[in-house]
Amino acid sequence: MGNQGRAIWMYGLPSCGKTTIARELINKLDSYILLDGDDIRDLFDNDLGYSESDRNKQSLRLVKLCNLINRYGVDVILCTNSISENNRNIFRKGINNLIEVYVSCNLEECIKRDVKGLYKKAKKGLIKNFPGIDIPYEIPKIYDIKLETDKYTLDECIKILMVII
Asked: What is the CATH number of the domain that holds 28?
């Protein structure tokens, strides 16, 4: 095995732009793999809910998968909601070579961007433990980069990230 890979971890509210930014970044980079929290849930047949305990189990899965991929020298982009400092510490403590990117966007804009209709379902009570609706999203105090997607375009966000990569 060669050099250890690194991880770019993007987190923020649902529909803040994490996955959109990650996909665009993947198009510009050769060696990165995208691990999206929703995709990993699907991979494991959505066997976890959205309680704090289940969110932490999901995060541990992502950390283990990221470390496995990194061990073979492959770089990873992770996308998660990571709604609390407790949850974010799982990533911080579990992954070496981590670049932490807080993708910030105001709740109103996230609701406008919600192509999956998750916010509408959460407001109707069809989805429980939804950040920004029936549970709080703790604004992070620690991160390497903050991307304000309600202020910057996708291209501007990519340019900011390319400087650090």
From this structure: 3.40.50.300
Domain count, the chain: 1
Cα Dmax for the chain: 50
Residue 59's domain spans which residues? 7-106+138-150
Q: Write the DSSP symbol of residue 28.
A: H
Active-site entry in 59, 82, 84, 104:
82
Nearest in space to 83 (alpha carbons), one of 121, 50, 108: 50
Q: How many other CB atoms are found less than 10 A from the CB of residue 122?
A: 21
Which residues contact residue 130 at a Cβ distance below 8 angstroms, ignoring those fewer than 6 apart?
Answer: 14, 50, 118, 119, 121, 122
Is 59 one of the annotated active-site residues of the chain?
no
Q: What is the side-by-side strand order in the sheet with 7-11?
A: 32-36, 75-80, 7-11, 98-104, 145-148
Instruction: Say if CB 71 and CB 64 are below 8 A apart.
Output: no
Q: pLDDT per position in the chain (165 positions), as tens?
A: 557 899 999 999 999 999 999 999 999 987 899 999 888 888 887 788 888 999 999 999 999 999 999 999 999 999 999 999 999 999 999 999 999 999 999 999 999 999 999 999 999 999 999 999 999 999 999 999 999 999 999 999 999 999 988
pTM: 0.93
